Amino acid sequence: MRRFIRNYPFSVVFAVFIWVICLIPIPETPLSDVRLIDKWTHIALYFVFSCIVGHEYFRTNKKATPRQLVLPEWLIPIIMGGLIEIVQATCTNGVRSGDWLDWLGDAIGSTIALLLGIAMVKIRARHS
């Protein structure tokens, strides 16, 4: 576990951050009136999270292939997003509600990050 945290410190911190903000009540803000703001927020959060995971994975596995990025940079964040939606729906006493469209936003953000990560791995392989 220490090795994992040492190799992925920002990923761990960002994952904890996502869990915390997804389980606490969200106050009303001026942005609350923006159409689909919560979906855009999910896309952005999971894009950043997946980019961080992909960067740290590539940093610790210099010869990573595009296929090897799928699990850490795409699948694990999407699974985490689904788990959060289930926890919101079942364990927050109505303070937060699970929304499968939020999970779709998570998947979209992670997919965009994966595509970017694959492109970067291919570019780096050409220049090595």
Gap from first CA to last CA: 32 Å
Q: In which range does the helix fraction lie? A: over 70%
Please count the beta strands (DSSP E, at least 2 residues each): 0
Q: Note the total helix count.
A: 5
Report the uncertain regions: none
Describe the biggest sheet? none
Oligomer: single chain
How do the SSEs run, as a string of H and E?
A: HHHHH
Structural class by helix and strand composition? mainly alpha
The proportion of residues in beta strands is under 5%
Overall pLDDT? 92
The backbone outline, from C-alpha atoms, is: elongated
Rg measurement, Å: 16 Å
Structure description:
The chain is mainly α and 128 residues long. It is built from five helices and no strands. α2 runs antiparallel to α3, α3 packs across α4 and α4 runs antiparallel to α5. The model has no long low-confidence stretch (mean pLDDT 92).
Q: How would you concisely characterize the structure shown here?
A:
The protein has 128 residues and is mainly α.
How do the helices and strands line up, and which of them pair or pack?
Elements: H1 2-7, H2 9-23, H3 37-60, H4 70-91, H5 100-126
Helix pairs in contact: 2-3, 3-4, 3-5, 4-5
Describe this protein with a few key phrases.
128 residues; mainly alpha; 5 helices
